[in-house]
Specification:
Number of strands: 0
Strand content: under 5%
Number of domains: 1
Largest sheet: none
Shape: elongated
Helix content: over 70%
Order of helices and strands: HHHHHH
Structural class: mainly alpha
Mean pLDDT: 83
Number of helices: 6
Amino acid sequence: MKVRNAIIFLSGVTLLSCGGKTEHNTDNIPNALQDEPQRNTYSSISKVRDKSDIIESLYQEQVAQSPELQEIESTMAAMHKAKLDSGRVFFEYSSNNNKYYEHVNSMAQQIKDSVLAQKMLQFIQQSETQYSSLSKGLQELDKEINSGRGTLEDLYYALKIKTTLPVMEQYQKSELPSERPMRQYKEHQNKTIQRLERKISK
């Protein structure tokens, strides 16, 4: 009798587990929200991203369907490249000067004659001041560009959020699971608890 009861119990759990599985039409579910994202045949801009970056995956799927977003993506990529190209010469120029003054100051500090060392440090300071004045326009322009880059990135993140929120909200509504499987299991769980409680109270 005990073996028979055990078999009935296990069968009930198995039926509940199987009953909890429902088939969904995944045609309208974004690839990023499916268990196994499917790679579509659109251009490289729509490559399925790592599941860990669900926002980027959702966003890129929307880009693949929107000419306007595709244009924005192209513009952002072009601006990134243009920034690197436009600032490369100044970056190298600034880097070379900064490295020089860093090393030449270190060298002057190694001069054992304190009077001579102080004199050299003054010469170096004068040269640094002249360099700062000479490159002031470029340095200020670089700061303004970096500030604008921060604003651009903020707006780009906001665009991704605004674009993906409706997709996620639609998924939440259309794919809300039924409570039935969990309620069935909860009912079976309660009955099992009561059964065990009665057994140990004897």
